[in-house]
Amino acid sequence: MNSSNNAKAYAKIVENGVQAVQEVNQLRSTGYVYENIFVLAHDGNRTERIADTADANEVGIKEEGMFDALANLFRSRGDELRAKITSFGFTKAEADFYEKELDLGKVLVIAKKAE
């Protein structure tokens, strides 16, 4: 289960930042816009570096909702990542799966459908 499609978002686990950049470029070439493409890694600094390189976004307050973002201040990084993932419409089980993959050093690329 490397990727998941649902009504809200597309997600794909990749091995590293290079593959994340390639995935972002692929998504952009198929019509996804910059504002709707996000990357997540377990290490917040790594997420920022990959997002900058890929010209993608980090998941922020707008996507999560203000309450969830404030709640993340009191959560571990794993809980924070699962909250970010479920904010895109993924189930708790999917979020658990993706977070475990991130824990192994992989990177998650998420693309929202245009609203």
Automatic annotation (TrEMBL):
Database matches in InterPro entries: GSP17M-like_dom
Domain General stress protein 17M-like: 12-105
Protein name listed in UniProt: General stress protein 17M-like domain-containing protein
Protein species of origin: Paenibacillus pini JCM 16418
